[in-house]
What we know:
5-stranded parallel beta sheet
Amino acid sequence: MRVDVALIPPARPPGHATCLVVDVLRATSVMAVLFGNGLRAAWLAGSIEDGRATRAALGDRPGGLMLCGEENALPPADFDYGNSPLEFQRIAAEGRLPAEAVLATTNGTPALLSCVAAPLVLPAAPLNAGAAVRVALEAARDVLVVCSGLVPPTGGRAPGEDDTLGAGLLVDRLVRAGAYPGDEALYALGCYEAVRDDLAAALRATEHGRRITAIGFGADVDRCAQADAYDTVATLHIEDSRPVLRPLGRGAAGDA
């Protein structure tokens, strides 16, 4: 088994590989929290407007449906919730988590959608790293870890240090299990190994970490650095022509 890393979503992911999609700050971390607390479905939207349209099209759903996401790291005014893992932990602890969600974020949901043609697509983050790696190993295919990256002011997409670190953590787990790393995987692994003793501090120091800390989400960054809080992973499907994540399993370790 080979593991490679794409520092930004590739134009065409390889058709034979399992894709582990990483947006540590914060979309795939939020997905780990949501599915770890019992969410049954997350419908993915590639933009804020698409999120609104998807929410309207789905209508009322058994168990409830919430519209969640961010624009410039903050929830759009008409969304039910934003993109904060700690906020969703509180909602779940209070028994207010609906059964389904529509998710629309700047980086994470477009990255997942870019991999839709792959045979197996899993959102992954430190919070559910063990579960994601276990499923990828069980699939017995090559693995491509896809970093969501950042959208710079000039447009396009650029690598994000936070996602490179998250990818390195996943590569570390896969290599320990016997996977052979490609060049970009070795690069991400080296970045992670340099900070593995304090991943939270390293994430706070990244461009994205500094930005969301500055607007009040520093505690989210620390939470996103915690490994293996959940033993749950979701997979991407197409249902009624819409992309949706469904959980493979359920469980949490030491969380409300």
